[in-house]
């Protein structure tokens, strides 16, 4: 490359040293720990928590915990009231329905793409995840099944060549997760597993219409769960927007 060409590049693309990828900050780690505790219902709706208590238990200063609280409040998982303290938010039915709508739209397109893109090796990977789910159901391991459920849906995105879609789904589905954990009985796990089998069978058959129908049915089941759960856990739900 001659000097003139190099100069033109510098004019339109000033090059600077790239920044190294940063490790998660203390605030990031506090956020992840607290969010997981909320989504798995280890901290149930209306649980009172304080910056000082959380900071003490995590062995950190209050500043990163304060940052994590603000992020969780912005997402609708904490209610921060300066005069009365901080509590875990109620489950917003509106937020759950909004998350379900976004997730369904994304996963329908992903499953249709999967019918064309997933290789035989990819199908084997998805089948192995279903085998692992069967073991989790047998062991009545609700937490393990929940993780494998997410992994199955994530892997469909990855094997379809659109792994970035799972990042969007993950960011938008959090309000669904508390309902999912609340509804994960042995019978509901068996039903979810059977629906996963239907989804994989449709992808294996390269049948996009059947795959769309299967994923739509699977993700619509939460609508029934909400009504059932509100009847027995009504104090945990709210009709208010987050």
Distance between the termini: 56 Å
**Mean pLDDT over the full residue set:** 89
- Main sheet summary: 3 strands, antiparallel
Based on the coordinates given, report the CATH architecture of the largest domain. Answer: Up-down Bundle
Strand residue percentage: 5-15%
Low-confidence stretches: none
According to CATH, what is the topology of the largest domain? Four Helix Bundle (Hemerythrin (Met), subunit A)
Number of separate domains: 2
Percent helix range: over 70%
The H-level CATH homologous superfamily of the largest domain, spelled out, is GntR ligand-binding domain-like
What is the count of β-strands? 5
CATH class term of the largest domain: Mainly Alpha
- Separate helix tally: 11
Backbone CA Rg: 22 Å
Strand order of the largest sheet: 1-3-2
> Helix/strand-derived class?
mainly alpha
Gross geometry: globular
Written as H for each helix and E for each strand, in order along the chain, the element string is HHEHHEEEHHHHHHHE
Characterize the structure shown.
The structure is a single chain. This protein has two domains: 26-89, Arc Repressor Mutant, subunit A; 92-238, GntR ligand-binding domain-like (Four Helix Bundle (Hemerythrin (Met), subunit A), Up-down Bundle), CATH 1.20.120.530. The chain is 71% helix and 6% strand. The protein is built from eleven helices and five strands; from the N terminus they run H-H-E-H-H-E-E-E-H-H-H-H-H-H-H-E. The chain has helices spanning 3-12, 26-39, 51-58, 62-75, 93-117, 120-138, 142-159, 163-172, 174-183, 186-204, 208-232; strands at residues 48-49, 78-81, 85-88, 91-92, 237-238. Strand 2 and strand 3 form a beta hairpin. The protein starts with a helix and ends with a strand.
